């Protein structure tokens, strides 16, 4: 199927959300080609792309397709893996909450348990949650340090780290075998919550995570001696860090923490920086 045929297929989807249809209708030829000339590829660490309509964009259908592939992988591992389930977290980007709960609904349609954070959380906490809950896998909806028009979908293994190559390759094969993302089944969200297939998590996991962070502090004796007066400037760059960073620093004994208020609140457009990359000096200008 060429890009024009693929474009027409999307345009004719009966229940396509209005915001996606409007975007399709506004596309010029160059944009159509870029949005449909290929499929957004799922690699070892997941997938990342521009948010929008098309096979080469990240949207609810591409997320459903990826999660359907993950569901097939979980099913291939048996009932124990299905019951262990998948932990899901998301960041402050556009559509991150929607993509997270869409993923949970796809998993629920397969009878696979998921644990979804009630609001945005940092990636390290998702990694911890996978291990703490004994989950088979984890999904993190994030595009990390990329500019605001991007979002992404990362999958983690049962150890909370990057999925091992054999499972990652199998997952990629399952995703590629799905030729109609519009046909991926979704469980009803509220029904799945009521039956326990989708469990919303939050503060209990936060507390457990912070306790784990505290337990691995290095040189706590030096922190006890100097931490109270040590001046720290911290910025979450409009991301998820503000959720827990100040609490983690305070419990360790750092009391003089200055947060950059202009960048403290989560904001999907990252209004004060071109790209929220802490490795780039421009992000702190």
TrEMBL record:
The Alpha-D-phosphohexomutase alpha/beta/alpha domain, residue ranges: 41-180, 225-284
- Gene Ontology MF: a single term: phosphopentomutase activity
Fetch the Pfam families from UniProt. Answer: PGM_PMM_I, PGM_PMM_II
Record keywords: Isomerase included? yes
GO biological process: one example: carbohydrate metabolic process
Keyword set includes Glycoprotein: no
Mind telling me which InterPro entries this protein's record contains?
Answer: A-D-PHexomutase_a/b/a-I, A-D-PHexomutase_a/b/a-I/II/III, A-D-PHexomutase_a/b/a-II, A-D-PHexomutase_CS
* Names of the cofactor(s): Mg(2+)
Keywords linked to the UniProt accession: Isomerase, Magnesium, Metal-binding
Query: Which PANTHER family has this protein been placed in?
Result: PHOSPHOGLUCOMUTASE 2B-RELATED (PTHR45745:SF1), PHOSPHOMANNOMUTASE 45A (PTHR45745)
Q: Which family does it belong to?
A: Belongs to the phosphohexose mutase family.
Q: What is the protein name stated in its UniProt record?
A: Phosphoglucomutase
Please spell out the taxonomic lineage of the organism that makes this protein.
Bacteria, Bacillati, Bacillota, Bacilli, Lactobacillales
